[in-house]
Amino acid sequence: MSLNRATIWGRLGRDPQLRETKGGVPVCNLHVGTTRKIQDRQTHRTVTETEWHRVTVWGKHAEHCYRHLQRGSQIYAEGRLRTNTYEDRDGVTRSSTEIVADKVEFIRAGDTQTSDAGSSDPAFYEAPGLDD
User: Fold this and answer.
1) CA distance 53 to 26
2) 113 or 68: whose pLDDT is higher?
3) How far apart are CA 48 and CA 1, in angstroms?
4) Cα separation of the two ends of the chain
5) What is the value of pTM for the model shown?
6) Hey, which residues does 34 pair with through a beta bridge?
7) What distance lies between CA 86 and its chain's CA centroid?
8) Are 127 and 61 in contact (CB under 8 A)?
9) What is the pLDDT of residues 69-93, one digit of tens each?
10) What dihedral do alpha carbons 113, 98, 18, 106 form, nearest 10°?
11) pLDDT for 40-69, tens place per residue?
């Protein structure tokens, strides 16, 4: 048995990017930053460290993300990790890892509850798996 699962909670560093595959399936790319505070060993000052994650959302869920999110929006995302390998312009083989989300929650500041995805102004939106 094995498990391929990633969970992040962070803020969008740029507006969502929506495109369609050749077959007409919507795909939304999100660039999510997660931060942690650490203490610098030499200066003893608190430093904020940010890690950037690529999150991909498919189908109607991609359209919801595109419509309701923007740079600075806070989200919670769950999904599987997928690594793509490619050659850059110089012929060097590189790889890139992304989270293919099957669950995305929109978090609004001050919200203590979540609402259904069907509301016109969602605080919460869960994208079911592609096979649902």
Assistant:
1) 20
2) 68
3) 37
4) 22
5) 0.77
6) 51
7) 21
8) yes
9) 999 999 999 999 999 999 999 999 9
10) 0
11) 888 889 999 999 999 999 999 999 999 999
